[in-house]
Amino acid sequence: MSKKALKRIADALERLSPPPLRSPDFNADAYVWETAPDCLRPVARVNRIELPLLVGIDRARDTLLANTRQFAKGLPANNVLLWGARGMGKSSLVKAVHAHVGGCKLVEIQREDLPSIGRLMNQLRGVDARFLLFCDDLSFDHDDSHYKSLKAVLDGGVEGRPENVLFYATSNRRHLMPRDMIDNERQRGINPSEAVEEKVSLSDRFGLWLGFHPCSQDEYLQMIRGYCEAMGIEIDDSTLHAEAIEWQQTRGARSGRVAWQYVTDLAGRYGVRITGA
Hints:
By secondary structure, the chain is an alpha/beta fold. The chain folds into 2 domains: about 30-210, P-loop containing nucleotide triphosphate hydrolases (Rossmann fold), CATH 3.40.50; about 215-270. Helices cover about 45% and strands about 15% of the residues. It contains 10 helices and 7 strands. The protein has helices spanning about 5-15, 60-70, 90-100, 115-125, 145-155, 180-185, 195-205, 215-230, 235-250, 255-270, and strands at about 30-35, 40, 80-85, 105-110, 130-135, 165-170, 210. The chain has a 7-stranded mixed beta sheet with strand order 2-1-4-5-6-3-7. Helix 2 crosses helix 3 (about 90-100), helix 8 (about 215-230) packs across helix 9 (about 235-250) and helix 8 packs parallel to helix 10 (about 255-270). The longest helix is centred in the N-terminal third of the chain and has 15 residues, at about 60-70.
């Protein structure tokens, strides 16, 4: 094949190849990691509520605050798994703590994009900033191999996790996989299968586990009263309690999320605009 023909082929391949990735300027406080093509999309306004409005999770709040402050100061800190009851403020706490502490940037990555996490680390490695990598609602089912990408990051791999990156994840599952799946595998023999052991051991690679449990009725009402005061909604206690308890019963659940949904309805009825969520 002639040199001219080879050059035509090379030129055609160059036109088909994606444009080179632009390095982000890192001027924003928060980003979303996107793939195809890879990019860090700045988030102008993070969807979050203020830290004082998160009621009934004091221990988890204080632990996550201390860990995040250490990281922001360049001190040793742990990757964190926030696990437990739905709607009890796991992801809200991560976003609120990020805003409260300052000194680091929040980067959200979707569970389905975990295979690209190595490429994300390459973009963050060596940058003069500190990053909280955040994955919400993390869990793995049978035959799901995405956990291997995350395990490599938590274990460090050959290069090691960048010193300026910390990983926070939320999950309804303490071991990041269905409990019945673990039990079924263990019933097949004395030792669990290697695949299940590998998935279960993934959660062990988080230095901190923060558990979230269903709230009491008093905590539920306290959350609602706190939201009302923050928004300037004036309602007497007897009316609020009666409505909030009825709202809870119609939902069949009691949690911070249910409390917020009731207050959203209440704000609409009282003509109060919600400026943050």
